[in-house]
Amino acid sequence: MDPLVASAYKNFTSSPLCRLPDELLLEIMKSLDPVELCCLRRVSRIFLRLFGSWEFRSHQLDKLGPWVREGALAADQHKRLRRLLRRDKQGRYCSACLRRRWFRDKDRIFEYLVGHQLYCSGCKTKHAAGLFSGSQRNLTEDNTRLCIAQQGHLRVCRHRVIRWTDIQRWVAQTSETSPKPYTETLCQERSHLYCCRKRDDTPLRPDGIQLCVTRLSTLTQLHLTWYAHTPSPRGRKSRPLPSANDLRQTWECLQVDGGKLIPLDTYMACFDPNVCSCLLYDGQHKARWRLAPPPFLSCRARSDRRSLFSGSGPVALHTASSGLRSGPVRRGSVFLSIKQCPNYPKGKEMCIYHDYHLVLRGVDSKRPWRVDPAWYRMVDPESYGLERDDYSLHLLWCLDEDCRNYHGRTDVDRFRDFFKGGI
């Protein structure tokens, strides 16, 4: 059974509320105030689907799906909702992280990490102690100590990493007077060269992981792209679309080879079940899971959605894009299209076109030696040994993947307080 369907099945078998007919659930939802309604729609896809019905159109955004309209809540209601959401996030911390926050030494540790300054020999200046790894904080010689921006790196694939010195070199390749971008192939290992047929075919896009550096006024922006062309797990056009499990397995292979910067939830969001019914989910009939969204939100029902989700022309079975954003640090997108493959003369074979984009926040072109604060948040924790920093364990990071404090999460800004005094 698919994990999404398993959750729905658990709700259906364990919750009397979820077993009520839609008509009764709609009457319950109509009696709630806007804040309670916003909380209930987060409980399960049943309520999110019902929230997309015509009865609640006044609360929704017009074109983007069953999401809450910004002006649907008053100021005091926004404040109340944020308080409830914060309480909900507290429950996402593991028990060890919650216990550590009650220890007496917590304030002393934070005061040291935020207020104590250490010298970085790479940046030639002082930073907050929290911007150094545990091993570097213990060094007594200033001329050998490096902050995590200088010590760590961002892993693009299993063959290539990006360091701050690389970014400085690329920035130097651009000119303020010339708008021409600088391009470079970061990695051209054979594992990155994906095509559904033999490699003697002409590739549809440049091979390997590509870098494009563009000068934008005083900022320099780095854009990483990778293109892959794989057979659809279901193959021929006459066969059904892939199952969600097949698509996850395809992503896992791509992620090992070149898509390390793209998380699974961003990849699968291209087939968001709240607006799309183009994937098969194992066990969906057993769970009585209504996959199809309300008709006016379907990925094929509206012309403004059709251009995004169902491709152009009759050959595309499904086309979708999904965005990735980690605060001010980086943003990117995945673009997927399942359609007839041009490499087969009869046009009956179906392929998946994968387009990955990652944009790194602009670097100050006037002061390329100054490490951008975004880079501290972007480097991989493993590259500077965060897992060996017992001093900040369960305060800044955690090894539990289910914990909000997990060191591998990109949506948690664990360095926010360290930049208040500047870098």
Structural class: alpha+beta
- Round the Cα radius of gyration to an integer and report it: 24 Å
The parts where pLDDT drops under 50 for at least 5 residues are 61-67, 198-204, 302-315, 325-329
Give the biggest beta sheet: 6 strands, antiparallel
Note the overall shape.
Answer: globular
Tally of alpha and pi helices: 14
> Average pLDDT, to the nearest integer?
73
- Number of distinct beta strands: 10
Strand order of the largest sheet: 5-6-7-10-9-8
- Sketch the topology as an H/E string, one letter per element: HHHHHHHEEHHEEHEEEHHHEEEH
Instruction: Bin the strand percentage.
Output: 15-25%
Organism: Phialemonium atrogriseum
Domain F-box: 14-64
InterPro entries: F-box-like_dom_sf (IPR036047), F-box_dom (IPR001810)
Protein name: F-box domain-containing protein
List keywords for this structure.
alpha+beta, single chain, 28% helix, globular, F-box domain-containing protein, two-stranded antiparallel ribbon, six-stranded antiparallel sheet, 423 residues
Give a verbal description of the structure:
It contains 14 helices and 10 strands. The protein is α+β, with helices and mostly antiparallel strands and 423 residues long. Strands 5-6-7-10-9-8 form a 6-stranded antiparallel sheet. A two-stranded antiparallel ribbon has the order 1-2.
Summarize this structure briefly.
The chain is 28% helix and 19% strand.
Topology:
Layout: H1 3-14, H2 22-30, H3 34-40, H4 45-51, H5 75-90, H6 95-100, H7 106-115, E1 117-120, E2 125-128, H8 134-137, H9 148-151, E3 154-155, E4 161-162, H10 164-173, E5 182-187, E6 209-216, E7 219-236, H11 244-257, H12 264-268, H13 303-309, E8 316-326, E9 330-340, E10 349-364, H14 373-378
Antiparallel strand pairs: 1-2, 3-4, 5-6, 6-7, 7-10, 8-9, 9-10
Helix pairs in contact: 3-5
